[in-house]
């Protein structure tokens, strides 16, 4: 990659204007994954890269999700980069505004702004097997890149049940929690909240005091534990600024506790019964009505779905202006919402907290690989799968941050992201070692072997055995989302690139001797 040849048509147009920019690395997205990749590239001495962002500012999901009450359910000191500690987190669990401000600070502190292309949504990426590069079409123009890092994230494209009968004819306001309409005044309105996930349990208590009536459509009740949240004192923040080792120790303690919990989720789900008892007592303290408690009590093992944290959700559901419909929304008839159990509600506004396109990533429809198929087509039969959560067979010099089976059920995704940044950095190093125009394409057998190991481990986890249907599972019931191990194990598995798991590609016109030496090197490593 360091010896990239420039072709005349890539450099000058008829009037001396560049026709097509060619960069070494293109990063897609400017959330935690994209900004983290940009920082790591700079630390590797790489400055020939761009960050393509579809919106007008950085922040990813923490820019898009600005609904009332939005906050993180991972402690602040663990939900931040190890290389960019923030001693001034105001609370143990930070709100959306503070996390977004942190990401803006990262962009400034690491001098990333010159690399960021705002309002540049990727519309299509096509692998060019002759040039060994990616042709990228964006809303802001076209470019080529030797290597692409896709950091669009799984929580970026809202899912609204478009097939819902009658929704198009609803006369009121409709929006998703991740596209909150701040211009619409909810005061005194009859509002329907669809869904009971992580967003809904924050939205419900935030809007309940101001709406006229709130109807919660609950297809499946969540398990909810207390949220041990508090202000971080000025003394603590002063100590973290003056003695950074104290913040590091705090982060290490938070990490260690969660590492110790993993076995209960991955190997011994029956041990989670103690947590269920805590959750039931938490509910009983707030909900006196036995009929309401019965509707709010899950019938699946805790942990099968995402465990939620809130001290205000249950109290809000007991208020006189709140109705809980223990059934999913089945249809819309004018301003009347009809639940699957036949119950109805008249509403002025519908707020969908129905999650995101996680197992059917929209970016996959826009990536065309070496065989002329999109990534979505490649995943049609077997579901999402990649080598070490990063590389997909037939898509050379392309990797994901937070790819298949990299999600976590009990810890911070920043830990996974940083491990994948290690893998990305070594990927680039390997390309440099190989020299010249070169690409690495994951071997299909390596992808299959990795995916088989992951799915075998998944069989005994609470996410597969807990008796629920969650957004961790795809349409065929396969868990293509969660990592079935500790973050330490994942870090070890992604510490470096194993060349025996990849095919080394050279341009068709490359000298045979070069191709032969490369092949010999790879086969010897196998």
From TrEMBL:
<dbReference type="GO" id="GO:0050661">
    <property type="term" value="F:NADP binding"/>
</dbReference>
<feature type="region of interest" description="Disordered">
    <location>
        <begin position="1"/>
        <end position="20"/>
    </location>
</feature>
<dbReference type="GO" id="GO:0050660">
    <property type="term" value="F:flavin adenine dinucleotide binding"/>
</dbReference>
<dbReference type="InterPro" id="IPR051209">
    <property type="entry name" value="FAD-bind_Monooxygenase_sf"/>
</dbReference>
<dbReference type="InterPro" id="IPR036188">
    <property type="entry name" value="FAD/NAD-bd_sf"/>
</dbReference>
<comment type="function">
    <text>Catalyzes a Baeyer-Villiger oxidation reaction, i.e. the insertion of an oxygen atom into a carbon-carbon bond adjacent to a carbonyl, which converts ketones to esters or lactones using NADPH and/or NADH as an electron donor. Thus, can convert bicyclo[3.2.0]hept-2-en-6-one into the oxidative lactone products 2-oxabicyclo[3.3.0]oct-6-en-3-one and 3-oxabicyclo[3.3.0]oct-6-en-2-one. Is also able to catalyze the sulfoxidation of methyl phenyl sulfide (thioanisole).</text>
</comment>
<dbReference type="InterPro" id="IPR020946">
    <property type="entry name" value="Flavin_mOase-like"/>
</dbReference>
<keyword id="KW-0521">NADP</keyword>
<dbReference type="GO" id="GO:0004499">
    <property type="term" value="F:N,N-dimethylaniline monooxygenase activity"/>
</dbReference>
<keyword id="KW-0285">Flavoprotein</keyword>
<protein>
    <recommendedName>
        <fullName>Baeyer-Villiger monooxygenase</fullName>
    </recommendedName>
</protein>
<keyword id="KW-0503">Monooxygenase</keyword>
<comment type="similarity">
    <text>Belongs to the FAD-binding monooxygenase family.</text>
</comment>
<dbReference type="Pfam" id="PF00743">
    <property type="entry name" value="FMO-like"/>
</dbReference>
<keyword id="KW-0274">FAD</keyword>
<keyword id="KW-0560">Oxidoreductase</keyword>
